[in-house]
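Reopening this ticket.

The earlier resolution said the output was attached, but the attachment link was broken on my side. Pasting everything inline this time so it's all in one place.
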Amino acid sequence: METTRQTKSLPATKSAAAALTFHGRPWPLFRIFIVNLILTILTLGFYRFRGKTRIRRYLWSHTAFGDERLEYTGTAKQLFLGFLIAVFLVLIPLFGGVEGWRHYQEIGDPEDMGLSDSVEFAAVVYLIPVALYRTRRYRLSRSKWRGIGATQTGSSWLYGAMTLGSYVLTVLTLGLAWPFCSTRLMAYKINNTWLGGSRFSFTAKAAPLYPHFLAVLGVSLVCLLLPIMAVAVMAWPALALLMGEFSLANLQGLGHFLNTYFFLSFGIILLAVILSRLPWNWYKARELSYFTGQTRLRDLTFAADISGWNLLKLRIGNFFLLVLTLGLALPVVYVRICRFMASHLRVGNAARISAIVQRSKESSRTGEGLADVFDVGEF
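Inline output:
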């Protein structure tokens, strides 16, 4: 009997700030993961839809807000149908058309071959956020708390266009537009999220993020450029050998130096790239905390106390767990992420939750018509 079917209530919190709590453990989830892995291999990948559903049911049923655990009502059939729709109604027609266009260009005008590659790349960049938005919509629509379902309205296609435009604007501004773009994207998602008949609101502005963004950007550039400058300085001995007296000894010395130089340069540049990424954990932590604090559900307020150091420890730990175990520690990573979110999220005015629940149960919202037929799974 799967533990994911548990819906037992937890003791109610007595504080005004209700906490999100996670009660899952790595070992039970690891057993589910191993069975899923074996059956997925034996069925040539077809079992993965059922496996993904089992994992979600475990994670949802071991996550509680206040005195009630969450419930996941999605099924493997829905995921499989969503996969078929994505493949046969979106991906095959789209990329089949691009490949046909490429073949026509090879016969007709070879100079325009690059255009089809650009279209294909843009399509991939566009479809990824579309898929992520539809994934979020599906997960919310199959999530319940106290019998109340969540909903994601809005258009995934519009969100994909907004994301694509954000990427273009970020590139054109050398990255400076990203806080503005990320705030707009988050606003679209949160303002189109519902719990029953109650709608979430998001009031964040990009301006408060820019001091942190610019500070982290400066530190990141220093971490990247200083090692690269050191690599350039290390090249001076090679130039001295080249400008000196031409001799066999000089050539042999140059060859030995270049071998050592390229090896050290590769290591230093790789280290520089890694170091330049680390400061962004502090910005991401600030962004998550700020976005959470600017989110409301009627009278409920939210807060997160995420620090850059805690986020960095989480990510580094997850990275080494996955690398050192060749991915077998994925259940441990799931548990670590869920515990991290639960330990840092707080909800204010929790006493008002009963009124919101009662209003949600009394309200009646219509479905999305044909959209419900096609939105049966995730890409």
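Reporter confirms the inline version is readable. Residues 75-202+367-379 form one domain. The CA atoms of residues 151 and 194 lie 5 Å apart.
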